[in-house]
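Lab meeting, item 3. Inverse folding demo.
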């Protein structure tokens, strides 16, 4: 990951915003390229390098029609057949390599007074991020364009913890996911503050394979709380670990992507990028 990737993402995000705002007019390659101040050739190449597919294909992966198709094909069976559909390459299941341990009340008592937290900043294909960890595993990961804002968000979670700006092994292992380097993923451990209900929702999200989508109602059924869609939405909205716990893969049953803690454009970008990874 490097600074150029962040610059590329910002340009792609601008293009995605433009396409979404003007989709009824179906802007062509030249129009979008001009909007992001690039030649059509350069824009096509940049987009393909970043997303792994053409702008036209990417637009298909992020359309409501494509989302509805995925939901119709997979909603009833996604969790039952996940092991068959996700055991090879980059589509393999998150829960094969990510383990969640809930914090004890003593660990986050009085705003995390008993916790020592390391944190660092990194670049990802979807912008800058902050990642933080305790001795037991990653406790926080969020997209943050400004370091000060990222650290403030971390402190809001654990206002009385002790913080050290330090990249440790737990953080390094978690960051490998952005490089599609799966050799270290069996070592990822998460150490999370949450209720039993929240932890159950987050663990269920880990079972959604890359390139697939689910709904709030389907997650509620999976945790055997079919009438708890709204509570599920709240738990998903409080996900403390961006991308690794794939809350971006949960959308409305209508096919509309819906909100995202780190921005709707970023959610669209991630869903399209993941679609391209499994449909090269």
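The presenter then showed the designed sequence:
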């Amino acid at each position: 990951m490097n600074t150029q990737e962040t610059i590329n993402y910002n340009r792609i995000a601008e293009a995605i915003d433009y396409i979404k705002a003007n989709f009824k007019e179906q802007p062509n390659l030249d129009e979008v390229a001009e909007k992001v101040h690039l030649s059509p050739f350069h824009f096509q190449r940049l987009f393909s390098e970043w997303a792994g597919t053409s702008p036209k294909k990417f637009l298909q992966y992020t359309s409501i029609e494509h989302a509805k198709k995925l939901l119709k094909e997979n909603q009833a069976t996604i969790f039952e057949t996940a092991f068959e559909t996700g055991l090879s390459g980059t589509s393999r299941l998150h829960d094969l390599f990510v383990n969640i341990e809930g914090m004890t009340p003593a660990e986050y008592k009085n705003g995390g007074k008993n916790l020592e937290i390391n944190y660092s900043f990194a670049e990802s294909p979807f912008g800058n991020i902050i990642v933080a960890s305790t001795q037991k595993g990653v406790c926080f990961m969020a997209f943050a364009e400004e370091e000060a804002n990222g650290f403030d968000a971390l402190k809001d979670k654990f206002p009385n913890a002790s913080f050290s700006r330090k990249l440790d092994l737990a953080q390094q292992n978690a960051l490998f996911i952005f490089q599609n380097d799966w050799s270290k993923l069996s070592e990822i451990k998460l150490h999370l503050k949450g209720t039993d209900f929240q932890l159950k929702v987050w663990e269920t999200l880990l079972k959604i394979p890359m390139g697939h989508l689910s709904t709030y109602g389907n997650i509620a059924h999976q945790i055997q709380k079919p009438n708890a869609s709204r509570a599920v939405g709240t738990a998903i909205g409080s996900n403390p670990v961006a991308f690794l716990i794939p809350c971006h893969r949960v959308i409305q049953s209508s096919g509309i992507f819906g909100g995202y803690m780190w921005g709707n454009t970023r959610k669209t970008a991630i869903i399209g990028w993941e679609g391209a990874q499994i449909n090269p």
